[in-house]
Each structure stands twice: as C-alpha cells, then as structure tokens.
Amino acid sequence: MILGRDDIRLTPFEEQADLVREAFGRQRTLLIVDNLETMEDKQGILSFLYELTSTVKVVLTTRERAIYTPIRLEQLAEDATIELIEQQAEEKQVSLSQKEVQMLYKRIGGIPAALVYAVGQRAAGYSMESILRMVPSADGDVARFCFQGSVEPLRGKKAHEMLMAFALFPRMPSRAAVTYVAGLETDPIEAEEALSQLQRLSLIRELDDRFRMLPLTREYALAELRAHPDFEKKAHERWVTWYLRFAQNYGGHDMEDWYKRFDPLNEEWENLQALFDWCAVHDRYDVLKVFWCAEEPGSIIDFTTLYGHWDNRLDWLNWLIDAAEGREDWLTWLDATASKAITLALMTRHAEAEKCFEEGEQYLSYAQPHIKVHWLINKVYPSVFKIGPKNREKINTQEYFDKALALLDQARDIVPHVPDAQLRTRFTLNINYNYASAFYWRGETAIAKGTFQKVMEEANTFGWQWLANGAQNYLGDIARNEGDYDTAERLLELGLRIAERNNEKRRTAKYKSSLAYLRQKQGRRDEALEWARMAYSDFSRIKVLGVDLEIKRMESLINTLESNRSH
C-alpha cells in the first residue's frame, strides 16, 4: 500500500527484500516498526533496516533498550495525563468529574494506551468502579496488550522471579531489598542480569539505586506472583526477614543525630505499611510486636513519635492491643496501651489517654520493671500538660503537679531493677526531664533551670541528642524570661539548627516560636514578626500533633506585632 508494488509479493521470498529496498530508494518514507521485542528474527529485521537508503527514516518502538540510541519514553507526568484524559473525554463526549480524573490517574498512572482504553470504556457505559477494577487487572485486555509479549519469554528465568519480587513493594525498593526478596542475594551476577533484563524491557526503571515500577506493571506482577504460590511463600518470608533486619538497623531509640537512623525508615514507610497489612491478614503477631513494642531493638515507636505518623500508629497499636488481649499476653498489651496513651496525649486527646491508663492499672503489678517505668513515665504527660498557668483558673493544678511528681518518684524507685544499663540511664534522664518540665510549668523556674541544665549535659554525653535538644529549648526560654538575651539567643539558634538538621518538625516550630518571643523582648519587632509567621506556618502543617494552643499563641503574637507596626 505504501510502495504501490503488488508485484513484489509475487516474486520469490528471498528476492523480496532487495525489491523493497529498491522501491524505498525512489521515495521519501517514514517507516514505523512497532513492538520489535514481540517479533521473530529481530536480527534479520534490524539488518534490513540498516541497509535502507537515506530517503527512509525509521521509528522503532520496543521495550528493549540495547539497540540504537534510544529516546526513552516514560509514563506521562500528572499534568499531561490529566490533559490526555480530558481530551479523550471531550472527544468521546464523556462527562468526567475532577475526582474521577484523579481516580484514573492514581489507579492507572500515565500510560496513554491504558488511559485511552479506560475513557473509551466509560463512553461505552461502564461504571467508573468497574473500569478502575478492570483496566489494571492482569487478565484484562490492557494488561495483556502491554505485558504478555514481554513477560512470556521470562518465565522460568531469574528475571521472572525478580519481576514477582518487585510486586511486594508498593514504593520504589532499593537494589539490595528487591535482590534479597527475589532470593538472589548470594548470586549478584545473576541478580544484575535479571535487573538489567527487566530494565531493557522497560518493566522497571532505575532511579538513584532504587527501582520504579508503574502501577499497571505492578498489578500484572502481583498476578504473576499469585500464580506461583511456592515462590510467593518464600518471597513473603524473605520480605518479612528483610524488614525485620532493616528495623534492627534503623529502628529503636532516638539517639545521636536521630535523622541518620530514622530517615531510611521514613523512605520505606509505604513499604512497611504494606508489610504490616500482610502480617495482620496472616496473623504474624510476633513480627508486628517487633515493630510496635516500645523497647524492642527494632521498635518504630520513637520514629513515629518524631515523624508524625500518628493515625497509622494508633491503627497498629489498636491491632496489637486486640491481638495481645486475645492471646492473654498482658505484658505486650501493657506496652502497646502505654504507647497508645502517650500518642493520644500528644494529640491532646487527654480523656482517652487517661482511660487507657486506667484500664491498664489492673495488669501493671505483673509487668517487668522496664514496662512499669515506661508506663509511669508516659502516664506523667497528661498531668504535666494540665499544670500550666492557662489552666489555673479552671482546675486545681496543684493536684496534677503532685500527681506528676508521685508518678515520677514511683518510676525512679523502679529504675534500679531494670537489667539493661543503657535503658536505666535513658529512663533516669527521661524522669529528670519530666521532673524539670513539671516545675517549669508550675512557674518554679529556678528548680527547672538547674535540672534542665543537668539533663542537657548528661543527655549529650549519653548520646540522646533529641532529649538534650528539648532541654535546650526550655533553657533558652528561661534565659529569655530572666532577661539574659545573649544566652537565650545562643541556646535557641544552636538548638534550631540541630532540630532542622534532624527534620524534627514539631521541635523546629517550637524553636521558631521561642525566637519570635526573644526578638519581641529585644525590641526587634520585624524579626519577631518573621519568626512568628514561620512558626505559625510550621505549626499549622503539623497540627495533628496537638499544637492548636501553639497556633493560637502565634496568631496572638502576630496580631500584636502587626498592630504595633501599624502604629
């Protein structure tokens, strides 16, 4: 049809190539060869294309990346994807809401063929729910069209196992993680070849030693995984083992520069959530205990405290509490309930927190010393919160002050019975920090100052920089209130740098608010206003942490400073 030479088909097959090349030489042609990887005798086709005259330009599409100089086409960006969906909807006279457009993007990604097919299905009368279920389905037309030809030749090879291993990771896995889950950790050459083959077929793409797999590809890989139950079982066990080891390396307490320990956990948070879901469905209680019991070496309790994964944390603590109760594992129940209570307290849901503590009292006498201390320290927090001057007209703050000190004294008496020396030191520092906090909010800053100073020095020596940073913030505020502005400035500016370096958003916001008040005291109102606005913005973004009071304080300070400015 392109050449207008019906006689070519009548000549012997072995002579046809020369006649086609001759015919192409007489005209300018754009020749498109689509999906080369699905064709037989690829080398013969390439040889033919190389020998064409300069009047022919060739566009060759393939998932394989080992030929020519490629122009790599990734999935469409979000803006381009939405534009394509809206263009197809207009062309096919389909009405789609913005919510439905976003649903298509989130579920399918930026794969043009799949998006065009999906909008076409909507035009044919299928519901959005059906489309979102059908289009990514491994048994559907789109998946077969996109992947069957590429995946079929991989079956029985290590690359196929690597593909199935990728299915377990909703977010980009590292090279080390996916290699381990695929069972290829001891054979790095085979692992590299498998990854290379998947990349050549455009089934994955490497980005900074991680690998991205598109949502539609992952759906197909999940179906492949389910179709191979023996491999699936082994892969899941390796997946669990990998993240248990990962938590051992990056979980635990918030020591030293805590961002170095916790940032890798935050990068893997979506993958960890998938692991937790699977463990819950398959009743892997002992695995979830490792992650969600506060004093386990692989615990992520401190990590979730600092990085603000509050809702997720409550969900999994509730699961662990229910599972522990069903097994009559009261020590785990107490540990998880204490963590739940402090979470609720941090979110200013104090009535719920106190109810948790009341429910746990009946089992506390059976607990090991470290669980008792953990429980008592956490129980102090709601009382300390109520001691401040803002509550003095509403409640008897003396009662809560006395309660806080009594709980801290109980905890202090138990600490010597904790076997682990490092844990004893950590508990002692935490008790002293809360002791100083109680006196600070009581208004007895002389006692608070001396205790905070001691805590800051000892915590730095011990390597608990997070606690030292908190004590430093208090000391900066005390110095400001005493009129020692030089000391306050030194403490607060240094403390802010440490908080920012560690990505501690709540503490960073608190330091900024402290600097706003300091600048106001120094008469540097423009700087005070700038710090107050930054603190307000930071607090507003993390208000899930129960910082509504801080937001109101910053609003009031901003209004005062702006009013003074206008005069």
UniProtKB/TrEMBL annotation:
Instruction: Check the record and name the InterPro entries matching this protein.
Output: P-loop_NTPase, TPR-like_helical_dom_sf
Signal peptide start and end residues: none
> Source organism's superkingdom?
Bacteria
Instruction: Report the SUPFAM superfamilies cross-referenced here.
Output: P-loop containing nucleoside triphosphate hydrolases (SSF52540), TPR-like (SSF48452)
PANTHER family, sorted: HTH-TYPE TRANSCRIPTIONAL REGULATOR RV0890C-RELATED, REGULATOR-RELATED
Please report the name of this protein according to its UniProt entry.
Answer: NB-ARC domain-containing protein
Organism (species): Dictyobacter aurantiacus
